[in-house]
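Sat 14:20. Reprocessing the chain from the morning session after the first attempt stalled halfway. Input below, unchanged.
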Amino acid sequence: MTYSRAGEAAERASGQTGADGGSALEAAWEALVATARRTVTDGLVVGTSGNVSVRVGDTVLVTPSGVPYDRLAPEDITGVDLDGRQVLGTLVPTSELPMHLAVYRATDAGAVVHTHAVHATAVSLLVPELPPVHYMTAALGGPVRVAPYATYGTDELARAMLDALAGRTGCLLKNHGTITYGTSLDQAYDRTAQLEWMCRLWLTASSVPGRSPSLLTEEQLAEVADRLREYGQRS
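Finished this time. C-alpha cells:
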C-alpha cells in the first residue's frame, strides 16, 4: 500500500465512505499498518520499537506488541476501548498503551504516533526543550518540551508525557523518543516527521564550533501560528 492509499483508508474510517462499522475498522487498520510501516521505511523506528494508534468511535486500534509491521495482516487487527479493555483481536496491544490512551482521554486526537527517532532522542538527552530553530515549531503549538524519563509502558510515563504535551501536539520523551498526535494518521505522522527534522536541524547548527543557532522569538512564532490557520486548501 502507498502512503496516499493510507490517507484514503483513513478517510473511509472516519465515516466519509464505508457502509458500516466493520468496514470503517478494517479501513482504519489498513491505514494504521501503512503508517506503522512508513515509520520503519523513513528511519524513525528500528524493528518494533515504536507504535501507532488510531481512534474509530470509542475503539482505539493499536499496533500489537513485538510484531514486525511487515508481518501485520488484516486478521491481526488489535483494538481496545478507552479504558484499555481489549475488544478486537487476540494479539497483545503495544506496551505503550497507557500513553496512547492518555492522549485520547485528554485531547481530541484521532491518531497517535510514537517513535524512537535518532535525532529527536538525541535532543532529549541534551536539553529540557527543543529550541525554536524553525517556524514549524508553531505547528506543534510552540517550543517542544522534553518529558522527564520514566520506565516505558508505565502510568508514570503517561503522566509525564501529558504534562509535556500541555498546549502542544507533540513532545520528546527523555532517553526514549517522540510522541505526536493529530486529527488523522496523516497529520500525526507529519508532525512526527517535522519534529525529527527540527531536532536534526538544531543538532546540526549547534555542532558548528564557535557559533550558536539563531532562535525565533515568541512574537515570531505567534505570527506563524496565525498564518498556519489559513494554510492549505479550502474544502
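The CA atoms of residues 37 and 70 lie 7 Å apart.
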